[in-house]
Amino acid sequence: MQKTKKVSDSMVEQIFQLRPEHLNGAGRLFGGRLMEWIDEVAGLVAIRHSESDVVTAAVDNLKFIRGAYQDDLIVLIGRITYVGRTSMEVRVDTYVESLDGMRRPINRAYFIEVAVDKNNRPKPVPRLEIEGEGQKADWQGAIKRKEMRLQRAKEGF
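^ Acyl-CoA thioesterase, sequence as received from the core. Prediction below:
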């Protein structure tokens, strides 16, 4: 029987305070730095779920909603939304957190991670136990994104 894990088993929350080295020339969070942080969180979620090394296979969506500025607290929350045989979709939501704890979304991204063995060959991952309507909706959305990725690949872009 194949191992099954819950979304909560692999969730990751990471917090950064923006410093001058994180900013672009306009004084906002540099998008490339945020992409690096998101990729790191997505990888950690996938490592936790698969219990193995992983590689980032694709960035399916990366939507910048608003900027962030020096001294802002940036919160990244990653979670598994879908698993295939060897791949996993990881959603990472990024927020600016005010001093009173209120969070405003600034980014949402979906990364495709693949579990690999010591020879860097894809390996099976645990199944995902879906709990509740929210996780069911995440799973169904992931299936649609997968279909769209396959269609784009078929069409050559």
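The chain has a mean pLDDT of 95.
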